[in-house]
Design goal:
heterodimer; A: alpha+beta; flat; B: mainly beta; SMN_gemin7 (chain A); Gem nuclear organelle associated protein 7 (chain A)
């Protein structure tokens, strides 16, 4: 009894596949997974405490804010935007589009200390704030 | 037909894996976090080893990692002199707690409201996670760097280990209740609430102490220096791994060595049983985590039990075909061809 197994006489336990590894492109935490959908914190938690009327008012406020933000994205197209980013980085570019989750901004003629990038993608999580003139 | 252990290798880390921890069983299964010297701790599904995400933010080797009970929060301890608390669902960094030296150990209370940290500055710190900017409560007394600090007795006490001592502290009075000297440098410590058992490793010894009195209950000697050991939830087995790259499984009651496995390409730094006891995970200097079955050959997670004599035909190499060609399985190991009987079994 005990000691190591000899490889000759035993048949290997089978596996249906190997564990999946990192996908190499993102840090993971798939927002489409059931756990994420169920548990992910909302960015601004609700202030109302169960009162139907105040919840409804709060929801309407959220709808109005969301619509204003989306309209502001439309207003940005084709204009020069000044981005303040982490590590004291300030860049400017023409705004082209945002992806649907507001995770990335597509920009052109991105002015950086290293030069001008004709087309670029800015990661929104790297942006602290941005301003533009109407 | 007795089966040979097929470990599942989880790759992704690029440097040694130095710590790992499981969550409790949640409605979404259970989870595993691994701490790595590459500074990027990873979260995985506990029963399959599938990668879920990587916590990005530390600027140095991560020495300790833990999950809260329902795996909604993670905490990590790093060589960049910080401990961080993370949202384990989104991967976002929630809180950074600055320390004065390398942080080695982090542990949540059962309600996830407090975090205990310990490290090279020899101080235990208790952070109130609802007020992260507030100064932590600090407990001093250790005379060398703290390797591990754990809540015990329903979070009313703290167990901590440094190079030569194990100490028990009362949480309310913040004073030391008991201390014992250990023969050699403590390499790991695991607290088992049911039965108040402390599993400690030092040198080649795997020792079991009472978590309430610190008295030693029993100990076993392994063939080589042991870096980590874990007690099965039902207290039937111990698994341990260390400097000889091998994993050992012992009967907890008799101390008999039941199984041993080679597989890692470097010393094993950490070993933990899953919360249901069906598998155990090992982290190694070789940068991988491996999942091992407690009962070899049982259907669980990615392992599949196959009844001998019925369904399979060997093909040389690593592929096994079902007799009606409807399914195929691959294994990690080379299978032998049996030319005499085409429909031979596993």
């Amino acid at each position: 009894m005990g000691g190591s197994q000899g490889p000759r006489h035993l048949c290997p336990a089978l596996v249906i596949r190997l564990p999946r590894g990192p996908d190499g492109t993102s840090r993971g935490f798939d927002p489409n997974s059931p756990r994420y959908q169920a548990l992910s914190p909302v960015s601004i938690s609700t202030a109302g405490c169960g009162n139907e009327a105040s919840l409804e008012r709060e929801q309407q406020g959220r709808v109005a804010l969301r619509e204003r933000y989306l309209r502001s994205l439309f207003a940005m197209v084709g204009r020069t935007i000044h981005f303040t980013m982490y590590e004291r980085v300030n860049v400017s570019a023409f705004f082209d589009a945002s992806d649907i989750d507001i995770l990335n901004f597509q920009v052109s003629d991105l002015q950086t200390p290293l030069g001008v990038h004709r087309e670029a993608l800015l990661r929104c999580s790297d942006i602290i704030s941005y301003t533009f003139e109407l | 037909m007795a089966m040979r252990q097929t470990p599942l290798t989880c790759s992704g880390h690029t440097r040694p894996v130095v710590d790992l921890a499981f969550s409790d069983i949640t409605p979404y299964g259970y989870f595993l976090i691994s701490a790595c010297k590459d500074g990027k701790p990873m979260l995985r599904q506990g029963d399959t080893g599938d990668w879920i995400g990587t916590f990005l933010g530390h600027k140095g080797a991560v020495w300790g990692a833990t999950l809260n009970r329902d795996a909604t929060k993670a905490a990590t301890a790093a060589a960049d002199f910080t401990a961080k608390v993370w949202d384990a669902v989104s991967g976002d960094e929630l809180i950074t707690l600055a320390h004065k030296h390398i942080v080695k150990s982090v542990n949540f209370t059962e309600d996830s409201n407090y975090l205990l940290t310990g490290g090279q500055d020899k101080l235990l710190r208790i952070y109130d996670l609802s007020k992260p900017e507030a100064e932590p409560q600090v407990v001093s007394g250790h005379t060398s760097g703290i390797k591990k600090a754990l809540w015990s007795s329903d979070d009313k006490q703290i167990l901590s280990a440094d190079d030569k001592t194990l100490r028990l502290w009362d949480r309310n009075t913040m004073t030391e209740v008991k201390a014992i000297n250990v023969a050699m440098s403590v390499s790991s410590m695991e607290y088992v609430p049911e039965g108040e058992i402390l599993v400690v490793t030092y040198g080649r010894t795997i020792a079991f102490h009472s978590a309430e009195t610190l008295e030693q209950i029993k100990s076993f000697e392994a063939p080589a220096t042991v870096n980590s050991a874990s007690l099965h939830p039902e207290k039937e087995f111990i698994v341990a791994g260390g400097e000889d790259f091998k994993l050992y499984k012992y009967d907890y009651n008799t101390g008999e060595e039941l199984e041993s496995y080679k597989g890692h390409f470097g010393p094993i730094h950490c070993v933990r049983f899953s919360p249901d006891g069906e598998l155990y995970a090992s982290g190694s200097e070789d940068g991988t985590l491996r999942l091992w079955q407690t009962t070899v050959g049982k259907t669980y997670g990615l392992w599949k039990c196959v009844v001998p004599g019925k369904n399979f035909v060997y093909i040389f190499g690593k592929t096994l075909l079902h007799h009606n060609l409807s399914k195929s399985y691959t294994t990690n190991s080379q299978l032998k061809v049996r030319p005499a009987r085409v429909t031979s079994f596993l």
